[in-house]
Amino acid sequence: MVTPGGLVVLTDRRSAAGPLVEVVAAAVRGGAGWVVLRERDLPYGRRTALRDELRAVVPAGRLIVAGPDPLGGDAVHLAAADPVPAGVPLVGRSCHGTESMSGVDYVTLSPIYPTATKPGYGPALGAREAAVLAGTVPWLALGGIDSASRAAECAAAGAAGIAVLGAIMRAADPERAARLLAGAFAAAAAERPAGSGVRDTAPGAGRGGSAGVGGGSGGPDTAPGAGRGGSAGAGGGFSGAEATVSAGWEVSA
């Protein structure tokens, strides 16, 4: 098993433009390689049923469950205060610039840009600052990634991938939106100079490390691009007319 990379889709049934499983399936067709099942407010039975439905459309081994209970799976994504569960091979955590990054395999850093999903949430870190904060921990950029240029900027900064909610969930055409973002990220990642990309590390490599971070902009003095790489898996390029996930797509984080 590897850590997440490329386009990672976060679910939100309340903002989805269509039935959640259909939106996710379309995003996967467009190049999304990983999906994070959120919906933490659902009763256990409904959440496990949704897990099973998503497993049918998500690539094998690429469904991550948000929260410390993996629902019988082998990957979890934790909030800042969630305990690390025992016996789960792949563990990620949401970070915002002040939390310790030890004990997990990868982190999401947010918000990278201002986000319509959480208005006023921030301040925005920016892709380069996020890379410095992450140090050697594989990281996903999250928040406000709604255009090809932003996806490419995150790739150039050394992100392993981009974690996207609103720009996929609210899109009138989630497959096209996913193809745009995944393709832009993959193209920019392929242009990173040799040796500047993120390393291919096995799950568990980041656990027990000392990669804590200071508050605000006072992160560790490490070079950007030291995380883990991943391919977006999207095919084809994109035109200037598609440079922003918009045209009625209800973009956001």
From TrEMBL:
InterPro entries for this protein: Aldolase_TIM, ThiamineP_synth_sf, ThiamineP_synth_TenI
Swiss-Prot/TrEMBL GO biological process terms: thiamine biosynthetic process
Pathways involved: Cofactor biosynthesis; thiamine diphosphate biosynthesis
Compositional bias segments (type: Gly residues): 205-219, 226-235
Its biological purpose: Condenses 4-methyl-5-(beta-hydroxyethyl)thiazole monophosphate (THZ-P) and 2-methyl-4-amino-5-hydroxymethyl pyrimidine pyrophosphate (HMP-PP) to form thiamine monophosphate (TMP).
Protein name as it appears in the record: Thiamine-phosphate pyrophosphorylase
Span of domain Thiamine phosphate synthase/TenI: 7-168
Tagged with keyword Transferase: no
Record GO cellular component, one term: cytoplasm
Record keywords: Thiamine biosynthesis
Disordered, as annotated region: 193-235
GO molecular function: thiamine-phosphate diphosphorylase activity
Domain of life: Bacteria
Species per Swiss-Prot/TrEMBL record: Actinoplanes teichomyceticus
One Pfam family it belongs to: TMP-TENI
